[in-house]
Amino acid sequence: QEEENQDLKSLNFPFDVNDLIESIASINNNVVVVLQNGSAVEMPWINDVKGILEPYFCGESGGKATVNILFGLVNPSGHLGETFPINLSDNPTYYNFPGKGDKVKYSEGLFVGYRYYDTYDVNVLFPFGFGLS
């Protein structure tokens, strides 16, 4: 569902992925979600799962790397390169997109990413640079 040269219309997973995760978590309290995404996503099920692994789009060796992390063979030590808002409407660019025609107003100025969230004290799902191991 994600592609280059196109703005996202939402931060939701495509199809019924959130419903699937919530259904699995309702019958199994030991669920770890492994994401495959290219940007921040909403996670309405975050409190229902034991963990989340964010490898983004990790390429041809991603499967082996993911298995090594899940089985404790390596310590995941990466950090997020972006802020994950709780909802799309928490994003500082929300009210400017999609714009009109091929024109978009960038009225957030310097208050992009973590600068917006910190300055206006907006709660986020995960801040820029977040990472646990």
Describe the structure.
The chain has helices spanning 17-27, 62-70, 114-119, and strands at 32-34, 51-53, 84-85, 124-126. The chain contains 3 helices and 4 strands; from the N terminus they run H-E-E-H-E-H-E. By secondary structure, the chain is α+β, with helices and mostly antiparallel strands.
Describe the oligomeric state of these chains in a short phrase. Answer: single chain
Head-to-tail CA distance between termini:
29 Å
Q: Please state the average pLDDT score.
A: 88
Shape: globular
Physical arrangement of strands within the biggest beta sheet? 1-2
- Helix-residue proportion: 10-25%
Count of individual beta strands: 4
Q: Biggest sheet, in brief?
A: 2 strands, parallel
In short:
The chain has helices spanning 17-27, 62-70, 114-119, and strands at residues 32-34, 51-53, 84-85, 124-126. It has 133 residues and is of the alpha+beta class.
List the helices and strands and how they pair.
Blueprint: H1 17-27, E1 32-34, E2 51-53, H2 62-70, E3 84-85, H3 114-119, E4 124-126
